[in-house]
Automatic annotation (TrEMBL):
Gene3D superfamilies given in the database record: dinb family like domain
Protein name from the UniProt record: DinB superfamily protein
Highest taxon listed in the record's lineage: Bacteria
Any Pfam family matching the protein: DinB_2
Segments forming domain DinB-like: 21-171
């Protein structure tokens, strides 16, 4: 379980990592792939952008509609929330098949992907700040691929952060493989 402050610190760290370690790479390096079914650095970021395009507005709406009720600052977890979080934890190295419209494999991407990612992080930090005055345990965030299911606000925030951690680590591994490839 992470607090909103811990989630914010993680997002600040991810922003910094992308801004310093990934944005300085040239476009060929950003698009480098070990194999045709692996993701490049930019594809990892585009995958996260696709999630942010859905979840940031959904979270914004959920937070805005739950400012009036009782403030519940501690995240508690539903079965769906626990399952979702376990699946995206960075420590869980098991590959998961992503839904087709969230899979950026073989996309034509450029530096705008990085800028969009960084902008989403600024927006997410604002959402985390706004969530401090809401009931984090209100089921109010529809799951992207099956909107009848809803995550609690706190679960959804933690899901997004863990998911981003997972794929930024994947992008950094891609950068590392490229470094080994060019050094060999």
């Amino acid at each position: 379980m992470r607090t909103l402050e811990q989630l914010s610190l993680t997002i600040r760290g991810l922003y910094e990592t992308v801004a310093t370690e990934l944005s300085s790479l040239d476009l060929n390096s950003l698009n480098y792939k070990v194999s045709s079914d692996s993701w490049s650095v930019l594809e990892c970021l585009e995958h996260l952008n696709r999630y942010s395009r859905y979840y940031n507005p959904a979270l914004s709406k959920a937070i805005a509609h739950n400012h009036d009720g009782p403030c519940e600052p501690v995240i508690s977890y539903s079965w769906l929330g626990k399952k979702s979080l376990d699946m995206v934890r960075p420590q869980n190295m098991k590959k998961h098949k992503t839904v087709k419209h969230m899979n950026p494999n073989n996309s034509q991407l450029n530096r705008a992907t990085i800028e969009e990612f960084l902008n989403h992080q600024v927006e997410l930090l604002s959402l985390l700040e706004g969530a401090k005055n809401t009931n984090l345990n209100k089921k109010a965030v529809p799951v992207e691929f099956f909107k009848l299911l809803k995550l609690r606000i706190g679960e959804a925030l933690e899901f997004i952060v863990l998911h981003e951690e997972r794929h930024i680590q994947q992008a950094l591994r891609g950068k590392q493989r490229l470094a080994h490839q060019t050094a060999a």
